[in-house]
Design goal:
This protein is an alpha/beta fold and 404 residues long. The protein contains 16 helices and eight strands. Strands 1-2-4-3-5-6-7-8 form an eight-stranded mixed β-sheet, sandwiched between helices. Strand 1 and strand 2 form a beta hairpin. It starts with 7 loop residues before the first helix and ends with a helix.
């Protein structure tokens, strides 16, 4: 699917922003007008136009709030948060020293918090103890009754944020009576931007403290905690579930068995071989050449080096070798829903590998092009994806209760 751009990365990220319109994250006319001002692969124009849109809608929200129009303000702030996130997305040349990375991500956070204060149910901005650090998180509650409810713990992917969780699954979960706990782990969101914590493959060391936090909350039913893994998050929660058995169910969006494979497929075979051999003196100038005319590869390498704490493109790709379910998947006991997308450019064949390795009850659902759901994480088809996930989860948790 091409959406407003021929450039694969620009098309996908525009579809991602537009797809969140179903839960208030964008307005289609704003998407169309903004995209029309951006040339193919022009990352500076991307930053300029999405930021300008975010600033304009931000002003609408501030004006509405000042005049007491709370619903209008909430609607504007939700869109603003998503637009600031989108404006920041391609700022990856030097993210450690680029002031726009922090500025835009903080604006995305702050405007989301303004919207959250106006939502129907309670939203808490919480900190989860993690070693010597605190992971930022949101706890979305169905209501303020204190009644224990089934809860979805949301785990980010390679480039997502806890603010995005509301559009990716949060609003849909709340409508169905599920609380949501969304956090930024190492390599993600504020954890990488503010605290500079890089990714780690042994995600059980991250998710176990998050579950510990959830277990202390009376509003969360301890026997009905499900996990939703978004993109790379699918590997992360599957890995963690092989060690921490407290999960009632897993939802992998989409199934990922080996993150290293998903990186290598983007490379010419000779380059992949030299990367594996550690020949960075040769591969670094080749990557520099390839990145000039390939938005997707450029962003992948730049984002990977930053979030993995790598010192070269080759170093980043070698570090991903630890991110595999090989020898681990068979230890997962939780019922698992594995989603895949027919046209997924990032994870081809990964769902089948997860399915083949699992010993626990599981189901694979493939979304097709004729449904308009063939893109990675089913961008642009959020209603269909949510229907599939939550119908399965409702039935899985009901069956779990009956067995008890």
């Amino acid at each position: 699917m091409k959406f407003l751009f021929q450039d694969d990365s620009f098309s996908f990220e525009t579809l991602r922003a537009a797809g969140f319109s179903v839960d208030g994250g964008s307005d289609i006319s704003e998407i169309l007008v903004t995209a029309s001002k951006i040339s193919e692969g022009d990352e500076e124009a991307w930053h300029r136009e999405w930021k300008a849109l975010a600033q304009r809608v931000h002003r609408i929200g501030q004006d509405a709030l000042a005049k007491g129009h709370k619903i209008s303000a909430k609607d504007a702030f939700l869109r603003t948060s998503n637009y600031y996130r989108t404006a920041e997305f391609f700022r990856r040349v030097d993210p450690l020293n680029d002031p726009e990375v922090l500025t835009l991500s903080r604006l995305s956070r702050d405007t989301f918090l303004q919207a959250a204060a106006l939502l129907d149910g309670p939203v808490e901005d919480v900190k989860i103890p993690y070693g010597n650090h605190l992971l930022p998180a949101y706890l979305f509650l169905v209501d303020g009754s204190g009644v224990p409810r089934p809860t979805v713990i949301y785990t980010n992917g390679f480039d997502s944020t806890r603010e995005e969780a509301y559009f990716a699954i949060g609003a849909s979960a709340l409508r169905r009576g599920y609380n949501v706990l969304a956090y930024d782990g190492p390599g993600q969101g504020a954890a990488i931007r503010e605290d500079r914590l890089p990714f780690r493959p042994d995600w059980e060391k991250v998710l176990t403290p998050v579950i510990d936090f959830a277990f202390k909350r009376p509003e969360i039913a301890k026997d009905k905690i499900a996990h939703f893994g978004y993109s790379l998050g699918a590997y992360l929660i599957a890995r963690a579930a092989a060690f921490d058995k407290r999960s009632a169910a897993l939802m992998l969006d989409d199934g990922m068995f080996d993150f290293h494979e998903t990186n290598v497929i983007a490379l010419p075979p000779f380059l992949a071989k030299w990367v594996a051999e550690g020949r960075d003196d040769v591969t670094t100038p080749i990557f520099d050449l390839l990145k000039k005319n390939n938005t997707g590869l450029r962003w992948l390498v730049q984002n990977g080096m930053w979030t993995f704490g790598a010192n070269s493109a080759g170093d980043y790709i070698r570090r991903t070798k630890e991110y595999t379910l090989a020898g681990i998947a068979q230890n997962i006991t939780a019922p698992t829903l594995i989603l895949e997308a027919e046209g997924d450019k990032f994870l081809p064949g990964q769902a089948a590998k997860v399915s083949a390795a699992l010993k626990s009850p599981h189901k694979v659902v493939t979304f097709r092009a004729f449904e308009g759901a063939e893109e990675h994480c089913h961008m642009g088809a959020m209603r269909l994806a949510h229907q599939t996930m939550f119908d399965w989860l409702d039935e899985t948790l009901a069956s779990r209760g009956a067995q008890k």
